[in-house]
Amino acid sequence: MEGLLWKWQLGPGYTGDQGNGRALWSPTTPSAATHTTASVSPETSDVTRQGRRAGDDLTMNTNTDPKARVSLNVAGQGEPERKRKPTVAADSLSHRDLRSGDFWRSLPAFTDIDEPTFLDHRWQAKHSITKVDKLLGVLEGLVHKRFFDDLRQGFSSAPMAVRVSPYMLSLIDWANPYDDPIRRQFLPVGSEILPDHPKLDLDSLHEQEDAPVAGLTHRYPDKALFLALDTCPVYCRFCTRSYAVGTNTEEVEKVSLKASVARWEEAFSYVESRDELEDVVISGGDSYQLRADHIRQIGNRLLDIDHIRRMRFASKGPAVMPQKLLTDDDWVDALTEVVDRGRRMHKEVVLHTHFNHPNEITEITARALNRLFERGIVVRNQSVLQRGVNDDPATMTTLVKRLSWLNAHPYYVYQHDMVKGVETLRTTVQTALDLEKQIRGVTAGFNTPVFVVDAPGGGGKRDAHSYEYYNRETGVSVYKSPNVNADALYCYFDPIYSLSERGRERWADPANHDAIVAEAVAAARSGEHR
Ligand code: SF4
User: Fold this and answer.
1) Tens digits of pLDDT across the chain (530 residues)
2) What is the distance in A from the centroid of ligand 1 to the CA of 236?
3) What span, in angstroms and rounded, lies between the C-alpha atoms of 456 and 204?
4) 176 C-alpha to ligand 1 centroid (Å)
5) Could you say which DSSP state residue 367 is in?
């Protein structure tokens, strides 16, 4: 670029200042509509400092006269060609097409359910399905007996209790339930069960090891995770907290974290005693299950601690039962009061939610999220990357754009944790890396999720790309987490079904397991980056 002479073509009201290479606008001379040229050097031009190059089209909107524009062009090439992007294909805007109407009536059991009933959160909670026989009643005639037998086997061997709202059930494509992304997240089928990875723990994130009091995890220096209760409006198969959340199953006896004011007070006292804590996540279980007075009690107690500056109520509710945000006024008012009080205290209180697939977002969701937006409640979304649910670029792009359309910020996409009984839903770290590449750039950066691995063993969330070492043959990726433990290395394991034949052979013999891990850790320590 050095040595190039640039020519400014100035519209009415502009003059070229050849001394310093800047275009000046003179509002008093609009009639002097001659095109003036000024030679400027790129080193001194404001335009050049903004990274423009020869041939770029530049419009300065400082003048209210639309004709008063400044064009940047290489000397001698005349008026630059104005380029318009081609019209986009209609399906590229499909994220705006939200499902509407009384879609739930296609389920035999809901044929007579009118809209006010379907929008009533109490009706949704009361008619949520927890038993396979009850599900049979709702789906009578819709699914094949073979699928139903498969479901029955899935229910009996799942480590997570089953609970699914009528809203979710009515969004499933029952003509093809095996491939449906919502069915895959909530309703286990026996034929999909794969053996767990040999390196899997029930509490793979070791949340209990970092819990100074029951139900409060303090891992990062300034942040704590407060588990207020152990129930949710639905139970997700992929839940990382299947060690505590939901009722006992045939496979797992759960750690008890019941809603208890006495237990909460122990947690609050701990938070109060730790001056370094600034940020509390209120989760569970799910904040949707907290009574309105409990939202106020927890919110205000934490707001009253001077060093707490940020709080996030975590709830999957907006994704699985948006009706509550439309019909449970007391709950929404309670959250609004805490958010407003926080704002007056210059503290941030937001809602974190959990949509995983664009099909979960309907016109009912839009109404619910709009209600929160009108009240100034910031909503951020955390998704879990799941095989056959959202592990392809088109689905993830639509999810990100649909959330952005409704002002819910796509914040994180989590690599699926190593959770018992759901190996079929896990993907490789490579899948996350590939997806991230496809997603970045589809919308603004602040609406682009960060893909993270919550490092098993308690390393916390690491950018998926930040591994020290990744062996794609054995599926072992190794992460560091200096702010949690400067010396430790944390390993994530790709699901064995996804590995090459050679990789599967190595894991097939338990005698190799320690060596596979030791080899990855040694490579990470030696700085070998694969
Ligand atoms: S709503 Fe959240 S805490 Fe509850 S089961 Fe689902 S993922 Fe787990």
Assistant:
1) 333 333 333 333 333 333 333 333 333 333 333 333 333 343 333 333 333 343 343 333 444 444 444 444 555 567 778 888 889 888 889 999 999 999 999 999 999 999 999 999 999 999 999 998 899 888 888 899 999 999 999 988 887 888 999 999 999 999 999 999 999 999 999 999 999 999 987 666 676 778 899 899 998 889 999 999 988 999 999 988 766 676 655 565 656 677 889 999 999 999 999 999 999 999 978 999 999 999 999 999 999 999 999 999 999 999 999 999 999 999 999 999 999 999 999 999 999 999 999 999 999 999 999 999 999 999 999 999 999 999 999 999 999 999 999 999 999 999 999 998 999 999 999 999 999 999 999 999 999 999 999 998 888 999 999 999 999 999 999 999 999 899 999 999 999 999 999 999 999 999 999 999 999 999 999 987 76
2) 5
3) 5
4) 25
5) H
Q: Whose CA is nearest to atom 3 of ligand 1?
A: 285
Q: Is the CB of 462 under 6 A from ligand 1?
A: no
- Beta-carbon contacts of 241 under 8 Å, excluding residues fewer than 6 positions away, are 207, 227, 284, 285
Compute the distance from residue 211 Cα to the ligand 1 centre, in Å: 19
- Which of 449, 494, 495, 490 minimizes the C-alpha distance to 468? 490
Closest ligand 1 atom to Cα of 284: 3
156 φ, ψ (degrees, to nearest 5): -75, -20
d(CA 378, CA 381): 10
Measured from the Cα of 242, ligand 1's closest atom is: 8
Q: Which CATH number fits domain 216-228+252-466: 3.40.309.10, 3.20.20.70, 1.25.40.10, 3.40.920.10?
A: 3.20.20.70
Instruction: State the Rg of the chain over Cα.
Output: 28
Q: Domain segments of the chain: what residues? A: 6-74, 103-192, 216-228+252-466, 467-530
Q: 54 C-alpha to center of ligand 1: Å?
A: 54
For the chain, what is the largest distance between any 2 Cα atoms, rounded to a whole number of angstroms? 87
